[in-house]
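User: Can you write out an input/output pair for a complex, sequences first and structure second?

Assistant: Here is one pair. Inputs:
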Amino acid sequence: MPAALIPREERWRAWLSKRAPKLFLGARVEPLPVIFDRKRIYTLPTRFGFFFGAMALLCVFGGLNYNNNVVLMLAFLVAALGFVSLLYAFLNLRDLSVISVVGQPAFLGELVTFQVLLQAPSVRDSVVINYRNLSQVGGLDARTPTAYELLVPTERRGVLALPAFRVWTDYPFGLFYAWSYVRVAVSTLVYPKPEADAPVWPNANAQLGAQASREPGDDDLVGLKDYVPGDRAQRIAWAVYARSDELSVRDFRRAQSKRVSLDLADLKGLSLEAALSRLCAWVLRAESLNLPYSLKVGSTDIPAGLGRSHRERCLECLALHS
Amino acid sequence: MSSPALSKLAVNVTGLACLSAALPTLFWMPLWVTAVVLLALGYRLAQEQWPRLPRPPGPLRLLLTIAVVAVLLIEFRTLLGRQAGVTLLTLMLSLKFLETASRRDALLTVTLCYFVTACQGLLSQTMAIAGYMVFTVLLITLCLRVLNAPEQRSELRLGPSASQSFSVWRILRALLIPLLHALPLAVIFFLFVPRLGTPVFGVPEDAMEARTGLSDEMAPGSVSKLYIDDDPVFRVRFETAAPDQSQMYWRGPVLWNFDGTKWTASWGYSRVPAQIAGLTQAATTLRYEVILEPTDRNWLFALDVASSAPEGAQITRDFQLVSRKPIISLKRYTQTSDSGLMSRVRDDRSANLALGLPPDRNLKTLELGAQWRRETPDPSALVERALRKFRDEEYFYTLNPQTLGIDPVDDFLFKTREGYCEHFASAFTVLMRASGVPARVVTGYQGGYKSAAADYWIVRQSDAHAWSEVWLDERGWVRVDPTSAVSPDRINRGVDAAMRPNRYAEQPWLRDLRDRFDLINDVWNRTILTFNAARQNALLEPFGIPEMDWRYSAGALVGGLLLTALLVMVTLWWWQRRAPRDPMAQELAALRRALARRGVEAGAHLGPTELLALINLRFAGARHAADFLNQLNLARYAQALPSAAQVQQIRLLSTRAQRQIRKLPLQSGA
């Protein structure tokens, strides 16, 4: 059963790819789309396949020994079924293509989701993609791009390049297992892990944060926030839309000093990671409280703002700081 | 390693596969085995229905297994025999299913199902069983497919569009198509995988109790119980001219010893091979081929008397044809018989063995014999006198005689005066011995049925017969059939004609049907079941290759594998070509066709938007077309892929749009 095999498989792969790196196409980064031709699909019996084969072999030997043709008929039918299922497993992957891979950023400790679009010229059943023991099984319709979610655990903050992942199948009977590794140049960001129960920010201005007015006014532009149906069309920030595809509205509030300035330099007592983790928690909190916030990390200075793109800009800055 | 739980569907299908695999073996098994198997399967299936039923705890299951093995050992005294082995396997299968909780267990159970099914071939190889086995394999393979369907694999996260893949048709397709692809390869395997001329391991030689047939003893009733059994024992094709039906005595066990009630074989004598070298004569020799159904006993049947022995068999001094191993599977042999052979063998010593009688039983018969001996010293005349007694006095041939007492021969000769072949043969032989003429009882089959469907004879259990042989100094052993004195019809036309003239088999259309059915069985026997190393060697003879060696085998097998690969690839390629294109593109094409039928040429270069403009130009109020094309545009250029429901919706809109286009009046183009 491949799911159980994975850790061993992984060890074996690591051992083998060290010695014979060319055996695994997954060791080389390929441009998209990746099309599975016959040269890159490997097929081996599963553990159940070996067991099944031993049973069939026993039947064949028994039938031959006793020259019992009914036993032999059955044994040969089962053996032939095994061979056919090898072909099926192989052909179930052949001409499959990975047409796109897109990653969603995630916080450290969470799983990163890569959306993998697979497409095949004919109907495919039981196609599984996995990275380590995180697998997803599904089926494909003919000539229809189908989205799989590939989950990858996060180990470090920063850029996460999608590691080689595996597309495999043991269709139709679980006797043979065909697989191919895919490594594409796709990466996403791993934000610092937001500190749990982070203390209130030290900035005096922000002490008022809890009572900050959340009522939108007309006085002062404080930043952008995500478009919510009902917002006035005149306030849509078209320039931002043209740049980033996101509908944002300009956020006007009554003049207020209630804004948070977050600065890495203020967190001297903490290690870098802990400090970033705390800043991350603050960014999220300010965002949820609708408090405009500015972020200063090293030489990067992000002016105060609100909204998804602002948040992402800040988190990206935290993720990439070194 | 703990494996995730099974779905109800998976358990039910696995249970069905187990039941199907176990069912035929239950016929050969003691009743308690059937009970245990059905209870175990039933309990596990009931657990799915009522989840509150407890799972039998591990120690209990272990205890159950040990108990079952122990009882089996007591019952069969071995676990290695055919019947014991298959029984054990079936029990283990049901107990394994009882504890099946995970997918891993279920896969093990399924593999065991295949094995149990295959082992049934050891018990019976009839076409009916083989057909049933194929059905079972289908079911087990279906089970394997269900266990491997994405929905059943809870260790894998279920992903896209897999839900729609779970349909009966898709499962069946995933089952039947691979089986069809495997079939030619299985045939090539069957024909070309080298067969063994002699077994490597010993054949399991245990005979099974359940089979009826002739044995090495004869008590009143042991032959007549076969009369109701219409199963074929063997089929014969004559190469030389077939003898007259009344001369077809198929010789089986020869019985020497009489204890007053029962005749038994004299194994000491019957094991010595006959000295017949150079005694056969071509003029009286018959040649024919016999296909003997498994009897679980050692006798091969031949016309009186065999002049050659097939490999692995010998002709004994009393002319039984005995195989060294019991006949546990279909046996095909070419046989010669020489009707005059027995008289040419001077075996004077054997005559002395054929005079013994218990002195204290059947006293009246002994007395009569002694009287005859005084009155008629010539043995031939004594034989005649005995036959005359049966013919002229009031003796009746019947299948339902009165029961006989402690001196059955006395009772038969002087009181009941009715019986069938074994009564007559037994009484005649005792009478001969009592009058000092060496005599013995021979059992076997008499006559046969000539199939109307093809040129062969069928000998059934109901043709079982018993007759006598007497030793005459000048002629040696001579066959005497006292039954023919009483009921010539039995010998000339068979038991049905003599006793049961109105049986169903005599209905012409039924007999015709039966003949045809038997012919199918015969073809099955000759083509499939008796295929062996020798026939495999001659397989390529029609192609000018007299002897097939391993190179041809290897070539054929590799060819078979390549051919199968080609077959699979061509099928899938053909499917790929036929596979539906992008549903939206299809709908768009359908709309274009609908427009073309109205005479509006909408080339493929027109996208949805341009198409809509064109439609608005030519049709007034094509509302549905507008809906469809707008939705199509939205779905096409959305960020997310359209869901199944969305695609469905677009299809619906497309159908409406096409219908509207068909109906709307055409405007002249501006």
